[in-house]
Write a structure and sequence with these properties.
heterodimer; A: MetI-like fold; 10 helices; B: alpha/beta; six-stranded mixed beta sheet; four-stranded antiparallel beta sheet; 8 helices; 35% helix; 22% strand; binds adenosine-5'-diphosphate; binds magnesium ion
Chain lengths: 251, 271
Amino acid sequence: MNSKSLQERLAPWVVIIVVFFVWEFGTRALGLQPFILPKPTDVYASLIRWWDQIQFHAVHTLTTTVTGFAIAVALGITLGLLVGYSRLAYHALYPIMIGFNSVPKVALVPVLVIWFGIGTVPAIITACAISFFPIVVNVATGLATVEPELEDVLRSLGAKRHDIFLKVGLPSAMPYFFASLKVSVTLAFVGTIISETVASNRGVGYLMIAASGRFDVPLVFAGLFVIAVMGIVLYEGFAYMERKLTGWAYR
Amino acid sequence: MSTETPSTPLVNFDNVALRYGTGTESILALEGLNLSIRTGEFVAVVGMSGCGKSSLLKLMSGLVRPTAGSVTIHGQEVTKPLGIVGMAFQNPSLMPWRRALENVILPLEIKSEQRRLHSGDAREHKEKARELLSKVGLAGFEDKYPKELSGGMKQRVSLCRALIHQPELLLLDEPFGALDAFTREELWGVLQRLHRETGCTVVLITHDLTESVYLADTVHVMSPRPGHLVYGAEVPFERPRNLDDRFNVAFTQIVADLRHHIAKGPEAEAV
Ligand SMILES: Nc1ncnc2c1ncn2[C@@H]1O[C@H](COP(=O)(O)OP(=O)(O)O)[C@@H](O)[C@H]1O
Ligand SMILES: [Mg+2]
């Protein structure tokens, strides 16, 4: 039913290969130095050469991101349910949440460093701060999508508000919730890396800053590549979970 | 005033008015509405869009309270949902995460939760739902999700959900409005049969005059807002009716008559 055609399966790989191909031969043709724009083969070589360090920092970035994201999920669900259930909470909290979401999180990091010192804690908080908002909005939106007629059917049978919330509100919010998870998890990476580049001595963000300080641009790109791959893997993981758990919502 | 005699109507509207909102932006949806419905009667209500037909059903189901006048069922004032109604709408409004059978069971589930009974009767519920689904021609579709069903099938499931708890009063708000002509005719047959078998009282809101005359014992015409009843037609034809009845002179005469009364606005009425 939901099976992709062979073409659809191959398409992303073709695009990736073409991009690397153009990049490789474009940089060769233009004769660009690796410290301006490294070729994919330079990046690959760097990846191999520094593999142990990259692995160490990548694992650190991953655990930081997942920790921050987990907190964001808990916070996002809580606020989303609150705001979706109570109109008062909605009106009270929405403006401040939008305000908070509009603040560039990189501006937050120096303050966090003053409070918690350089290291993992500011990164976890930044990852969380940048990724919880889409979850709140989606959970609240999902709760609000209950069809008025369905609500009438339930109420005419004597169901109370919290019955409707449990029986209809929560299930209808699930597809929205899972859709937000996959977006949020990639945002969490952004938060972690921002914080690591500004104030950390560990993580891929730190590795890239240190490398660019030495004009080791291929290593910077190797770091970006690793982040992208981790992002794709987590995104796909959550997308898979979404399809498995809320397949009823998709045609 | 709760003594019930055989002549007590099941539903009675006495000079009912309904206003939505307050102040200058409020809307007077209904005013001076009188209506009485006998037990077992099949009533259709027709009228322009926005004249307050859906509001009429909400008053019967206890979802809203009248601003003035009174709505009684079994002689008792309706002050809250009584749980004796089944409802279906133009939009089947099924739960997409539940299979057809699980959708049908919903009312039984809510009722047994209210009585603090749990899963004990789940098996019985399923049996009932299965039986009802097969009555409307959906045997074999019990485990399908709504997205796997056609519009007509979803509407059948919705009808089953409205009937599974054996409501005394079946409230249908333009249930066939979104279906193609052939599916609609098929479902007329289904509804007619269900009405005969269950003997429940039906109130059907519709835009389709032919549908109203084909299915109902009494067709009421509602005026534009603020809504009240301006005309009622008794439909004398024997049941079960069949689709060819629609082309009888007597049938078309009733339809023409109703059309005439809908065309007449409140101004013309006063003349
Ligand atoms: N919850 C509501 N709040 C405010 N106005 C409403 C509400 N429900 C219905 N109305 C208004 O009351 C009038 C009658 O509505 P309704 O009963 O839905 O009419 P119909 O079903 O005949 O189209 C309409 O003008 C509509 O805009
Ligand atoms: Mg309506």
